[in-house]
Amino acid sequence: MDKTTASTRTRSGRKRSYRGVTKKSKSAPNKKERQSTKTRNLILDAAEGLFARHGLYGVTVRDLADSAAVDTALVHYYFGTKTEVFHAVFKRRSGTINEARMQSMSRYEEEAAGDLTVEGAIRAFLEPIFDNDRQNDRGWRNYSALVAMANNSQEWGGEMMSQYFDKVIHRLIDLLRKAIPGANDQDLYWAYQMFSGSLMVIQANTGRIELLSKRKCRSDDVDAFGERLIAYTSAGFKAICEPHESA
Amino acid sequence: MDKTTASTRTRSGRKRSYRGVTKKSKSAPNKKERQSTKTRNLILDAAEGLFARHGLYGVTVRDLADSAAVDTALVHYYFGTKTEVFHAVFKRRSGTINEARMQSMSRYEEEAAGDLTVEGAIRAFLEPIFDNDRQNDRGWRNYSALVAMANNSQEWGGEMMSQYFDKVIHRLIDLLRKAIPGANDQDLYWAYQMFSGSLMVIQANTGRIELLSKRKCRSDDVDAFGERLIAYTSAGFKAICEPHESA
DNA sequence: GTCTATAACTGGATAGAC
DNA sequence: GTCTATCCAGTTATAGAC
Fold first, then answer.
1. A64 touches strand C (CB under 7 A)
2. How far B109 CA sits from the closest chain A CA (Å)?
3. Of B154, B189, B225, which has the smallest distance from its Cβ to A209's Cβ?
4. Staple partner for A222: which of A9, A47, A133, B93, CB 3.0–4.6 Å?
């Protein structure tokens, strides 16, 4: 019943080794290395889409292989187990997007020069995400839907999300602490929790809002949700984090 | 690759019939009928917990049977397929909770007598949920975590959530339309979408906020998140739904 | 690096006895 | 209503040829 260990064990119980990105060679990649990277990415692209839609257990190694148009043996050759493909999907993009968000927040902090606002901080945190959304890239869309699904799952919503995202979140909370003098930690953390839920349900792209609004709103309409999310969230943060007047 | 049809088909392709709650007999239930209901509920309780943690595909019929301490054949006897157990889990509680919310909102509308507020409407919508949370009931906790997971999944977040919850949501939006004169539909729907994300991530109970806050906040602390969710959400709604002054 | 073949096993589902 | 036994398709994973 313990899915994690069950799925990372080989049938025989032995540990296997497998091809990563074929060493960190600084020299120009030869033909084989280029092919490796290409195949690896084909698999990751396919996995991103399938896992986002059906979750880890709803996808088989054959599904992955078929969707990537490669042989099942290659999936094992490059990644080992199915669970390792799942983790590799998270790893591939999270570094990039987190770096962009760290930079965006640092840039904002410099520009604001001591005069930080809640809106400004939230905007700096979100802007790199919206940039990606605007590209309308299938891969990015799938990745963010996958993160959204994982976030609300008991299996991955705790430790795994913390592992990948706590650093950027603590950076945001630091900015907000400066923007709202006297804010206390519990209020800040709960407000962030509610904010993250809003962001995630939007990124999940389930088509729900189309149904609820009878097509008046569209899930992937960044121009519609971007400014609204910033305004809604900023008002929420202020409402519960700004110290109330009391003796 | 189409999980839904694949899982609702029998191996042979034939349709089977199976025991529901053994007819809607109005007469007092005899021993067998009581046993039926009991076994059915044992299976549903087990399913609620397992599906919440691992999703439909992460749980096997054998897992369900073992956890409920019944035979696998009984799972099929009562529900047909695994997917039908999944749906039955949703069905069992959604009627009850939705009814409580409809009543709560109607009661509020009467009491407010034309003087509706955003806080009041949000509170009336949420109070029955918080009541359940306060009971600290395992079954309810599992059910709401399951709903939260389904909500952010591409497979069930659209149609299935609409099917079970759109009615109460439209009732809430009607109240809010009255509380905020001049609010337009797009703003209301987007605000609701963000609100639902906040609520769902809390109900998902993933232990995330414990990790993020280094145990300063606790996932299941209704007293901590209840009033904060109401305040945060009300401020958000007002920020984006109240008409802006313009010529 | 890639493909074929296959071992080893899991999982959904049902027939039929009790 | 419940349990035993079983069918067999589908699944992960690997050995070994190319």
1. no
2. 22
3. B189
4. A133
Best CATH choice for the domain B91-241 from the list 1.10.10.10, 1.10.40.30, 1.10.357.10, 3.10.560.10: 1.10.357.10
pLDDT of B5 reads 39
The three-point CA angle B121-A206-B202 to 5° equals 50
Q: With b meaning 16 or more CB within 10 Å and e meaning fewer, what string describes B126-145?
A: bbbbbebbeeeeebbbbbbb
Comparing CB atoms, the residue among B57, B225, B232 nearest residue A57 is: B57
Plot region of B184 (φ>0 → left; ψ -120 to 50 → alpha; else → beta): beta
Nearest nucleotide to B77 by CA–C1' distance? D1
Q: Tokens 């694949």 correspond to what residue?
A: B6
The CA distance from A157 to the nearest CA of chain B, in Å, is 5
The domain ranges of chain A are: 93-241
**The predicted structure's pLDDT at residue B7:** 37
| Torsional class of A137: left (φ above 0), alpha (ψ -120 to 50), beta (otherwise) | beta
Query: What's the CA–C1' distance between B84 and C14, in Å?
Result: 17
Protein residue minimizing CA–C1' distance to D5: B73
Check whether residue A10 has its CB closer than 7 Å to nucleic acid strand D: yes
Distance CA B225, CA B199 (A): 10
Q: pTM score, two decimals?
A: 0.94
Neighbours of A12 (CB within 10 A): 7
Question: CB of residue A128 closer than 7 A to nucleic acid strand D?
Answer: no
Looking at CATH, the fold of the domain delimited by A93-241 is given as: Tetracycline Repressor; domain 2 (1.10.357)
Please tell me which of the candidates B57, B157, B229 has its beta carbon nearest to residue A194. Answer: B229
**B18 — pLDDT class (breaks 50, 70, 90):** confident
| Chain B 191-230 residues in 7 Å CB range of strand D | none
Q: Where are the alpha helices (DSSP H) in A55-81?
A: 61-68, 72-79
Structure tokens at A22: 């074929």
**Got the DSSP string for A98-134?**
HHHHHHHHHHHHHHHTT---HHHHHHHHHHHHHHHHH
Q: Tell me, in Å, how far CA of A178 is from C1' of D13? A: 53
Burial class (CB in 10 A: 0-12, 13-18, 19+), A3: middle
By three-state DSSP, how is residue B90 classified? helix
